[in-house]
Write a structure and sequence with these properties.
By secondary structure, the protein is mostly helical. The protein is built from 13 helices and no strands. Helix 6 packs parallel to helix 8. The chain is elongated and about 80 Å long. The protein starts with a helix and ends in an 11-residue tail after the last helix.
């Protein structure tokens, strides 16, 4: 009989909620969360993970702490841990849209695009006007399409954007008026027609081709450095917009 009572007691303890935290523990946990948020702003992600972990130890039933730790884990490429933390946050608060959004980021980073899309869809059900979820879901959808395309490179989107960029068209037209660029293009065309046997030391030589490419890149940089920066920003904009999100 005593054994049965002990088993019941052990079972009851296992099933008890983990939120029996003392008020002072809850207050300290909230301070640790704020410290973690500051570390995130300073890009001290490992320190942020430590702060959120200590906060969780003091107040294990706070979904925000798990979700914030998930963001920090993703920053140091611990995507599996980030997903687990998002799942814990959702178990505590099934309507916590940010947990679904951060799970989507981690899944995308692991190339699990379909699962990421599902996470973003759930996030948008809870927060339909969130632009971050919308843009990140589009990125995951594009990557999924790229993955199933014949080449699987994902370059077609960027190339189309580049060709349709009026600044690029204007720059290209201006560059073609430059005698050095005309000579460079003429040399490339003649060697392309002649093939590898078109003279020793021509652009069929790999080192010469690399040098010609460097010259061309320098011409572009000198002609329109603003466009180069625009292109860099365009590439960066295709990365996750969640990187600048604020933490709870």
């Amino acid at each position: 009989m005593l054994s049965l009572q002990m088993n019941k007691k052990a079972w009851k303890n296992d099933m008890l909620p983990l939120s029996d935290s003392l008020p002072e523990d809850i207050e300290k946990a909230d301070q640790l969360k704020d410290e973690g948020n500051n570390h995130m702003k300073e890009e001290n992600y490992v320190a942020a993970v430590d702060c959120y972990t200590h906060a969780i130890e003091l107040d294990p039933n706070n979904a925000v702490y798990y979700c914030n730790r998930a963001a920090a884990q993703s920053k140091i490429s611990n995507y599996n841990e980030a997903i687990k933390d998002c799942e814990r946050a959702i178990a505590i608060d099934p309507k916590y849209s940010k947990a679904y959004g951060r799970m989507g980021l981690a899944l995308t980073s692991m190339n699990k695009y379909q699962e990421a899309i599902t996470s973003y869809q759930k996030a948008l059900v809870l927060d339909p006007e969130n632009d971050s979820y919308k843009s990140n879901m589009k990125i995951a959808e594009q990557k999924l399409r790229d993955l199933s395309s014949p080449t699987g490179t994902g370059l077609s989107f960027d190339m189309a954007s580049l060709i349709n960029n009026p600044a690029f068209i204007s720059m290209a037209a201006s560059l073609m008026q430059n005698p050095q660029v005309q000579q460079l293009m003429s040399g490339m065309m003649s060697n392309a027609i002649g093939g590898p046997a078109a003279g020793v030391g021509g652009l069929s030589d790999l080192s010469s081709l690399i040098h010609a490419g460097q010259q061309f890149a320098q011409q572009i940089q000198q002609q329109n450095p603003e466009l180069i920066e625009q292109l860099r920003n365009h590439v960066r904009s295709r990365s996750f917009s969640g990187s600048t999100e604020e933490h709870s």
